[in-house]
Amino acid sequence: MFRRHFIRSTLLGSALALGATLGRAASAPKILVVGDSLSAEYGLARGTGWVALLDQKLKAEKSPATVVNASISGDTTAGGRARLASLLKTHQPGVVVIELGSNDALRGLSLQMTEANLVAMAQAARKTGAKVLLVGMQMPPNYGAAYGKQFSELFATVAKAEKTALVPFMLKGVADGADPTALFQADRIHPTASAHPTILANIWPELQKLLK
């Protein structure tokens, strides 16, 4: 009799412990970053890009949140849109960070198509219950004032329409600093490792709100 009671108690304790573990896992938000070279550590040592710094920050703060970096150098909004469904199914994130669009502009792709792709990505993520953070960019002045304005504004347009969080300019304090070339690699497109703490500082306030 005692032995049966002991076994039942042990099994019950194990079940409760497992349930607590699964509960913590379920409540721990997973952050999925879908971006291009600016998030994929192009030209940088591994572990020095803003996504890696984010992961380090979360661990230092003992946050239960985890990070999955699904960024690919050279990716466009069309590429991100095409692979998002699989990423959502595989990782089941609580937060999706979309950092795409720069390569669309650099290749002269239709801004209307860029906007449509971002809308589709935001909607797909939100349908799974995930919160969305859209990371905006700006084009260099040589692309023309009108084009640059249209490009930067499309991020705010999508964020407002889809009710997502927004970082207006990922490279604030980097591309518009006193010496814009000082924080960029030789190609003058990709930031150096020393710029990525500033990039994270731009993104973190909005991302932090989504983790609460």
UniProtKB/TrEMBL annotation:
CDD domains membership: Lysophospholipase_L1_like (cd01822)
UniProt signal peptide: 1-25
SUPFAM superfamilies for the chain: SGNH hydrolase (SSF52266)
Domain SGNH hydrolase-type esterase: 33-196
Entries under Pfam families matching the protein: Lipase_GDSL_2 (PF13472)
PANTHER family the record matches: THIOESTERASE 1/PROTEASE 1/LYSOPHOSPHOLIPASE L1, THIOESTERASE 1_PROTEASE 1_LYSOPHOSPHOLIPASE L1
The protein's name: Arylesterase
Organism name: Ottowia flava
